[in-house]
Design a protein that fits this description.
Elements: H1 7-18, H2 23-27, H3 29-45, E1 55-56, H4 58-62, E2 69-74, E3 79-84, E4 87-95, E5 106-109, E6 112-114, E7 118-126, E8 132-138, E9 149-154, E10 158-160, E11 167-170, E12 183-185, H5 187-196, E13 202-206, H6 215-222
Parallel strand pairs: 2-13, 11-12
Antiparallel strand pairs: 1-4, 2-3, 3-4, 4-12, 5-13, 6-10, 7-8, 7-9, 10-11
């Protein structure tokens, strides 16, 4: 005669084996894989210097397309997430707009892609002799002297989000807000995103990345704790 196994015991055993997976997740391969992906990402954020690093999930990246991918930007964390089928495939540092030029929150779609782009707003002004006379020029505030010219700031791997000139591109990423409103990326990340995303790809900019849950859950993930399980 078989001894009946109590359902609650199975649930407890499942949780002990997986850390945070439920009994239902153990029975569902997709939920099991989702829990594993979340645990791998939480382990990355448990590293002491994770803020300086880029997380990549090779298997998710191998099947990333413009149809199943989306980007989320966390202004508070100065991080970006690439989601593939809703799971975190990349977690990377960004530099958004400084206080005088904040990056606007919102839900966007990529409007333009250009590998070699230069700003028509920000850059430097040089004299007729080729000397820089304004190093941090804004064409709306600085006049070009006679014989001089405006040289737009380079924005490689440009992915436009707004008609007002906000987009994602290669730039200096110092670990704090530093741009004129754009979302700066390290070159390797920008090249990878540029190859995956296309016109119409969704990009969400908010204080916290929605994929990490509520602000409270986000803080847990940021500290390396596994947030509440999410399918």
């Amino acid at each position: 005669m078989r001894t009946p196994i109590h359902y609650g015991f199975l649930c407890a055993a499942a949780a002990a084996l997986t850390g945070c997976a439920t009994f239902e997740q153990l029975q569902n391969p997709q939920a099991r894989q989702a829990a594993k992906v979340r645990q791998q990402h939480a382990a990355f954020r448990a590293k002491e210097d994770w803020h300086k690093l880029t997380y990549r999930h090779p298997e998710l990246l191998s099947r990333a397309t413009s149809q199943n991918s989306a980007v989320e930007i966390s202004l508070k964390d100065q991080r970006g997430l690439l989601l593939v089928d809703g799971a975190i495939a990349m977690d990377f540092p960004v530099a958004t707009g400084k206080a005088s030029h904040p990056t606007p929150k919102g839900s966007y779609k990529i409007l333009e892609k250009k590998e070699d782009h230069k700003s028509n707003l920000y850059g430097r002004i040089v004299s007729s002799e080729g000397q820089t006379v304004v190093s941090d020029a804004d064409t709306r505030a600085h006049a070009v002297p006679q014989g001089g010219r405006f040289v737009g700031a380079p924005m490689p791997y440009w992915m436009r989000l707004t008609t007002a000139g906000v987009g994602m591109h290669v730039g200096y990423v110092p670990g704090r807000p530093a741009s004129h409103g754009c979302i700066r990326l390290k070159k390797d990340v920008a090249v990878e995103l540029f190859g995956i995303l296309d016109l119409g790809s969704p990009v969400t900019v908010d204080a916290h990345a929605p994929a990490l849950g509520t602000p409270k859950e986000t803080e847990k993930v940021a500290s390396g704790e596994a947030a509440t399980t999410r399918a």
